[in-house]
Structures are given as structure tokens and as C-alpha cells.
Write a structure and sequence with these properties.
Length: about 300
């Protein structure tokens, strides 16, 4: 979104909201990263390795997307080569989160439905292989955008100054076809994974639970995991939502792009880790201890 088109007052408010949310979310997620690396008990559990990978990826993505947003107003023109690198990592990190959550869902499925094989199938080494595969599945489409650009434009395009926006640099029909194909494919795979796994997990939870209270708790946990995936799947559907909303309400360009930007790029970076981290008793125990110690330290500081 090119916020430089907004009046100064509107742009200032939007940037304060974006930067404020970015700082707040970075602080919250930073606590979880600190807790993970401080306590070795999390190092050998694939569940927490995938979780902290999700958080770190979201931190990188948040830094990039907020930086690009601010730069679009503070410095509208950017070297195309620098812009392509920023967009490369922004695109990758944006689409890694849904695939990572799909991996977390598969790990939970194996833990609940195939507990005897969980240790073998979900080893630490295989977890890191899965993370590498997730990055590979996202780096290839991102690099494809650059290759398509080089096929359509001379290499000197990277020495020009442009507005650093994905549609500005990658606006050809080939880029559009690539985006629709890859995002539709990933969206379908993540959605089908979500539906299949959580139906199976829900059935297993109901079959293994004798009292209604535990069954309700298991059902709520499954629904929250599904909400995590749906939040991150917004990264796939946002371009289509923007296309249809702008066709219906072209006068509200700024409001539509800003709203979908917050909903798809900023808010999921907060809700997804909190939903998983706060509800997890082991992780939350260490987070609570850290916050208690921090508050106690602040109280004893001299005025």
C-alpha cells in the first residue's frame, strides 16, 4: 500500500498504529523466544521447535512488513535491487506461517492418533528437515518472481528507483498467474490438511475422553488450533479480497488496503503465538515466572 497518497494526518495516524502494534507484538513474541532459548527443556520437543520457528518467522516478517510500510511514506522511491531483496524475504516469511502451522497440526495428529510412533516420526532431526522443506517451498516461488522479471525486463531494471510495492515490481501477467497458481495450491493443501487432521483429532479426543468436561476442553483446543491456521491463511486470500473489494468500492482504496494489511500481516503475528503459547501450560509456566521476576525487579529499583 502506498501510504504517501494519504493526507499527512491520516498517514501519521496509520503509521502510529502500525509501528505501535509492531513494537508491542515484537515485545510479546520476544518473551517467548527468550524463554525458549533460556530453558533447554524445550530443545528436544518438536512441538516447541516448530512453535518457536513460527514465532521467529513472524518476528522477521513483522519487521520487514512494518519497515516497508514506513518506507513507502518516508522514502517513496527505493533502489529496485534492494526492494526485490526485501520483497523476497517478506513474501517468504508471510507464507511460511500457514505451512508451519500445518506442520504443527500434523505433529499433534501423530501425538494423539499415533502415539506409539510419535517419537520415531517426530524426531528433532526430522523436525529441522521439515522446517528446511517449508523454507524451500517458499523460496522457490519467491525467486521465480525475480526470474520472471528478468525475462520481461533488462537487468538494468535493478538500478532504477521505484515504489517498493509487490504489484509495482512484479506486475506482469506472468507474475499474476504464478501468484494465483502457487497461492491457490498452498491454500488448498493447508485447508485440506486442517480439515482432515482436526476431524481425526476430534474423533480421537472424543473416543479417549470419558467425561464431558475433558471432551469440551479438547474440542476447544482443537478449535483454537484451527483458528490459528485460518488467521495465517489470510495471507493467501488477501490479494483476492483486495481485488473484489476495490472493484466494488474504488473510492475507499486507502481504508480497504490498510484494513486488510492489518488483518493479514499484523494481527495474526500477535494472536497466533498468544493462542498457542499462553494456553500451553509448560510454556506459560516459564512466561509467568519471567513476568513475575521482571515486575519484582522493577519494584525494587530505586526512584
Amino acid at each position: 500500500m502506498n501510504s504517501s497518497r494519504d493526507p499527512f494526518e491520516d498517514a501519521l495516524v496509520k503509521h502510529c498504529i502500525v509501528v505501535g502494534l509492531g513494537v508491542f507484538i515484537t515485545y510479546i513474541n520476544g518473551i517467548f523466544v527468550f524463554i525458549f532459548f533460556k530453558h533447554s527443556v524445550f530443545y528436544t520437543d518438536p512441538r516447541y521447535i516448530l512453535y518457536i520457528h513460527l514465532v521467529i518467522n513472524d518476528l522477521i516478517m513483522l519487521f520487514l512488513t512494518v519497515s516497508l510500510y514506513v518506507l513507502s511514506y518516508a522514502s517513496p522511491l527505493m533502489n529496485a535491487a534492494v526492494c526485490s531483496v526485501l520483497l523476497l524475504f517478506a513474501s517468504m516469511t508471510s507464507e511460511i506461517s500457514p505451512l508451519n502451522l500445518a506442520g504443527m497440526a500434523i505433529e499433534r495428529y501423530i501425538a494423539i492418533c499415533q502415539p506409539l510412533h510419535h517419537t520415531q516420526l517426530c524426531s528433532v532431526n526430522r523436525t529441522y528437515i521439515l522446517i528446511s522443506l517449508i523454507w524451500l517451498l517458499n523460496v522457490i516461488p519467491a525467486l521465480t518472481d525475480i526470474f520472471i522479471l528478468l525475462l520481461n525486463e533488462p537487468i538494468s531494471v535493478f538500478s532504477t528507483s521505484i515504489t517498493c510495492y509487490s504489484k509495482r515490481l512484479y506486475g506482469s501477467d506472468q507474475h499474476l498467474i504464478r501468484a494465483i497458481f502457487v497461492e491457490s495450491l498452498y491454500l488448498s493443501c493447508v485447508f485440506l490438511t486442517l480439515v482432515f487432521i482436526y476431524i481425526k483429532v476430534l474423533q480421537a479426543a472424543k473416543a479417549a475422553t470419558s467425561d464431558q468436561v475433558s471432551a469440551t476442553k479438547a474440542r476447544n483446543t482443537i478449535l483454537l488450533h484451527g483458528l490459528q491456521l485460518l488467521l495465517c491463511m489470510l495471507a493467501y486470500v488477501t490479494p483476492f479480497v483486495n481485488y473484489f473489494l476495490l472493484a466494488l468500492f474504488p473510492k475507499y482504496l486507502g481504508i480497504i488496503l490498510f484494513s486488510t494489511y492489518l488483518l493479514s500481516n499484523i494481527l495474526p503475528r500477535l494472536l497466533s503465538p498468544l493462542i498457542y503459547g499462553v494456553r500451553d501450560q509448560k510454556m506459560f509456566k516459564y512466561v509467568k515466572r519471567y513476568l513475575t521476576c521482571s515486575l519484582h525487579f522493577l519494584k525494587i529499583q530505586p526512584n
